[in-house]
Design a protein that fits this description.
Rossmann fold, about 220 residues, about 35% helix, 7-stranded mixed beta sheet, 6 helices, peptidyl-tRNA hydrolase activity, RNA-binding, alpha/beta
Amino acid sequence: MGTACCGPAFCAPGCGLWPTLAMSRFVSELQSPGKRWLVAGLGNPGLPGTRHSVGLAVLGQLARRLGVAESWVRDSSCAADLALAPLGDAQLVLLRPRMNAGRSVARAAELFGLTAEEVYLVHDELDKPLGKLALKLGGSARGHNGVRSCISCLNSSVSNAKAAVGIGRPVHPGTVEGHVLGYFSPEEQELLPPLLESATDLLLDHIQNRSQAPSPGP
């Protein structure tokens, strides 16, 4: 995915960004007094099952865990698939970008009234071995084009949460692209189910803890 972000991350009134009927229904359903979070799975929707799309695989597992795996809605206004899920008193907007990740994430955040601090990016990480998970607030893109695009379009380099799923770095630098865009080996595929479960647990625990934390004072 490219790193460029066309247009402002959060459009001003009258900029021509209007939600579709599907998005309007989603926004109207967000009535809970609890906190709201956007969780975006990064990857290539045209290459499911590849290492680069492991973030999308985690998002799919998250949707299954929350009982919304059959509730995805295609929305053209943010070029993504969306699903809405409750999590206690909080609400999650699950997002699968279909084109430029940064534009999709920023447009969805704007439409749902979310700040960069309320966005989670789930992505693959070359510099962590397969099975290694990490979740942190802020930080750089570490060479990931999709994350870099989101940081640019959200106008925030340190605020959003990043959940990294290790895919391992190949020994030879010339094979990195093929490794990232390639499919998991049979041996690696055996590790995926528990890895997706662990990543889902990590996300849900983190979001629930932040949802229950007292809001900062003025």
